[in-house]
């Protein structure tokens, strides 16, 4: 078993723009951080340094719908890990 301890601080830089910095042990050893910025109510840009490599991407809000007593939102993320591995994700939040 491997445990990593870390601490992160996030600051709002402007409306829709955030910067986070952190440090930790083992997997999170070193300084890491990210920046995100909404360029449209449905589009967000993200860049991060994970203490090993740079990663970046863009998130698109696909929409939301009521489910039971909650509202569920769907987002599609497309990005690159280390600048050479493309990745995508579909996120549902409620």
Give an overview of the whole structure.
- The protein is mostly beta strands.
- Helices cover 0% and strands 74% of the residues.
- It is built from no helices and seven strands.
- The protein has a seven-stranded antiparallel beta sheet, with no helix packed on it.
Question: Helix proportion of residues, in percent?
Answer: under 10%
What profile does the largest beta sheet have? 7 strands, antiparallel
Q: What is the string of helix and strand elements?
A: EEEEEEE
- The assigned structural class equals mainly beta
The average pLDDT value, as a whole number, equals 94
Q: Report how far apart the termini are.
A: 32 Å
Helix tally equals: 0
For the CA atoms, what is the radius of gyration?
A: 15 Å
The share of residues in extended strands comes to over 45%
- Total beta strands: 7
Q: Strand order across the biggest sheet?
A: 1-2-3-4-5-6-7
Low-confidence stretches: none
Looking at the structure, what is the overall shape?
Answer: globular
What's the SSE blueprint?
Elements: E1 6-14, E2 17-24, E3 30-40, E4 43-49, E5 54-67, E6 70-81, E7 85-93
What is the gist of this entry?
The protein is 0% helix and 74% strand. The chain has strands at residues 6-14, 17-24, 30-40, 43-49, 54-67, 70-81, 85-93.
């Amino acid at each position: 078993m491997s445990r990593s301890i870390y601490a992160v601080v996030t600051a709002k830089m402007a409306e829709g723009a955030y910067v986070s910095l952190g440090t930790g042990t083992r997997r999170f050893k070193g300084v890491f951080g990210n920046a995100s910025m909404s360029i449209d109510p449905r589009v967000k840009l993200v860049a991060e340094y994970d203490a090993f490599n740079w990663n970046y991407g863009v998130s698109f809000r696909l929409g939301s719908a009521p489910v039971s007593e909650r509202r569920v939102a769907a987002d599609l993320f497309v990005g690159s890990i280390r600048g050479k591995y493309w990745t995508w994700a579909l996120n549902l939040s409620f």
